[in-house]
Request: fold
Amino acid sequence: MNISGLLTSAGINTGVCVGLFSLYSVLRKQPSLVSVYFGQKLANVQSKHRDPFRFGRLIPSPSWIMKAWETSEDELYDIGGVDAVVFLRAVVFSIRVFSVAAVVCLLIVLPVNYYGKEMNHKGIPDEPLDVFTIGNVREGSQWLLLHCLALYIISFFTSVLLYFEYKNMTKMRLAHIANSLSHPSHLTVIVRAIPWNQEGSYSGTLTKFFTEFYPSSYLSHQMVYHSGSVQKLIHDAEKMYKLMKSDRVEQRCVQLVRCGFCGGTTTSFNILDNDCKSCKAETSLDTSDLQQKECAAALVFFRTRYAALVASEALQSPNPMLWVTDAAPEPSDIYWSNLSVPHRLFWIRRIAVIVASVCFVIFFLIPVVFTQSLVHLDKLKKIMPFLNNVVERKLFEQLITGYLPSVVFIIFLSVVPPLMMLFSTLEGAISRSGRKRSTCIKSIYFVIWNVFFANILTEAAIEHYQVSIQKLGDPKNIPHVLAKAVPSTATFFTTYVLTSGWASLSVELIQPFPLIFNSFCRFILRNTDDLSYGTYTFPYHTEVPRVLLFGLLGFSCSILAPLILPILLFYFVLAFLVYRNQILNVYVTEYDSGGLYWPIVHNTTIFSLVLTQTIALGVFGLKKSPVASGFTFPLIICTLLFHEYCRQRFHPVFRKIPAQTLLEMDRKDEATGKIQELHQKVQSSYCQFKSKKINLHKETEQSPSELALDSTEKGNNATVEVDMEETAAEKKQKAESPDLESPHS
Reply:
């Protein structure tokens, strides 16, 4: 591929970004799309549809960019929690690192690569991208020391930033734990694999065990039940409650016969007597029925946080397969489905997940080989001469080599996050945030192998096809083959960042799937309720791997192919604005892991640094520069030592909660007299069959478009304030309909 092919890809992606960004600035002003682009703001408010048409709604405006830029980190913390701040700090970290890398490599490394050999240059547009890589530097050149110097600068600056970021994230996590005095999870432990007692039930066995071994700290417990008919009854009751409590009932059909669309006749609703004994008999559950539905799992509540910590960390039985304890997630974070699965089955599931993952990785080599063959169309035409007649026009060839491979690869990669989410569910995650975090780690492993290593190996195979296929199979030649293939593969990585990076941010803004669902509900189902389309949590399992993968590509190609750095830097700046806007307006924060994504960011960054240094060591050896190789080897050792120090100094805080912090929180509760109040709260916080909250909040008099417009669009600095006081109907509902609790709580 030459520069013109790269410019073709950049032009197409720039046009897509500008078009979708402009479309977003128009769509976000439409009253009918408020639930798509302002789900976070509409989570607790119901607005009235009385917004007259204004021509300004059809004019694109950049006000959302200014709003996203000006928002402080404290505001983001209040809205998105610690996880949102951690993710955005990872993006800011990438901007800082690659800003320094771009300045150093474009000013020092790129000219050395371009003039590395004595050759007649064709001019920038017709130059192949290989002349801008380290592959264009002649063997034994003294200028390779500049590449080594640039590598030292990038590694040192990255390590310093990583240290201070890890330190700040640790402080933020400790402050988050210390400020969560009312979190019921600190006094709760999940117990699984409860042994069965023939004389009683799981509940009786658990009560006997904890009253015997934890007599002073055990408070109560709540059993986990097999979900089924109970959950269905609650779901149906919730639907009927929403229907009967609605402010108005639309009479869409006044005929006395069924029309077939709106359903029912004028006599479809029958008034039921409040003293309907048959209904009470059908919905009653006695103790024997509950015991039959009990699972070998429960939530055990303790009197102090320290006692819960000790119980969750200790081995409860000589048999590790019995009385398995874990720290409980928050009530909104707990994943009930996996608690009802027998714990002894999870090790079998994990083996099945490993086998399925290996098979999927092998299968995914097919699209990798296909996309790399499109990048190297000139070599493919030598192997398959009939392609010469297919690709005759130069523009068509540039489109195939510069844009099509990354598009095809992205389409195949779209199936990875849902599949990894399924694998994480089968492995037995007990929290929704833990399931997302596990999916994130699996996706990182997958994309690093299939996007980076598999493409490099495929490049090496194509490059050496006509020379000697046996040379690639010789283990002694693999380091040299990889060192030569990485600079060549940088052309594909550059176009991949253009397509997967720039275009993906535009798609993230538009929200195509919620947009289509919104249109279907409004125009097909004729549903005008703003809150009926659901809300979404931030997709950390897809966005964190993407950001870290681009970081890996930036580090590995920084001194080898510096042209990727300005493209990558522009992506991170766009990501900073887009993700801030999405966290502020679109995604609802239902649960928070307390910053547990940062160790993933740190470990992946260290891996990227060490991999970059190792590849550079191989390249310097291939270029016969012993001085550069000698200086690179100590850099690898220093990076690994730095990682070990951070692992010992900061990582334990992200694995466990400090006992000292919990003891101080317990003493504070005892001093203020809130311990009894906390005990009452923790026993009623977890409810397995709890229905969703029914929004009966006070309606705001502002129209949806006024909620959507930022203060800069309105011409003043006023903000929308929503009255969140409970209505009388809500208070009556709480008094008359208590949450379903276990009889043993």
Notes: The first strand starts at residue 46 and ends at 47.
